[in-house]
Design goal:
Elements: H1 9-141, H2 148-163
């Protein structure tokens, strides 16, 4: 094997160093800077993406907080509207109930007044009819006429006893 021949060992070492130096120069001047640029661009893109992701995360959190605040305000507003509605309905019901009670009281008084008028009128008619009837009966039965005034007094006494 020629690699192990000691006579060709020094030229092989020279060519080895020359090859490594040329390879090192090519690598350090052409290939490694491109790889370094690619790695740097990749690192920059990753950092940029992370920054953008952080910005989007912060923005999403702000939007979420705003959304939650608006939802809470909407709940408060809706509860307020419901409470106002309940109060208004309660007030309207109380107002209508008061109006109904006043109307019922008025109608009751009118009915009581009408009943009292009818009762008074009926009592008066009963007294008149009874007076006439007693006068006619006494005239027919005992053939005697009594004074209408005396008959009315006696009838009122009897009715007064029955009422009490």
């Amino acid at each position: 094997m020629p690699q192990l021949d000691i006579g060709t060992f020094i030229p092989q070492l020279v060519w080895l160093f020359l090859t490594f130096i040329v390879l090192y120069l090519i690598m350090s001047r052409a290939i490694l800077p491109k790889i370094a640029d690619v790695l740097e661009q990749r690192q920059d893109r990753i950092a940029s993406d992370l920054e953008e992701a952080e910005k989007l995360k912060n923005e999403a959190q702000k939007v979420l907080k705003t959304y939650e605040r608006e939802i809470e305000e909407a709940h408060i507003s809706s509860n307020k509207i419901v409470e106002e509605g309940k109060l208004k309905i309660s007030s309207d019901i109380n107002s209508l109930n008061n109006e109904f009670e006043l109307m019922l009281e008025k109608l009751t008084k009118e009915a009581e007044y009408s009943v009292q008028e009818i009762k008074d009128k009926t009592n008066l008619e009963i007294k008149e009819i009874t007076t006439e009837l007693v006068q006619k009966l006494t005239k027919v039965i005992i053939n005697k006429s009594f004074d209408q005034k005396n008959i009315k007094i006696k009838i009122e006494e009897q009715l007064g006893k029955q009422v009490n």
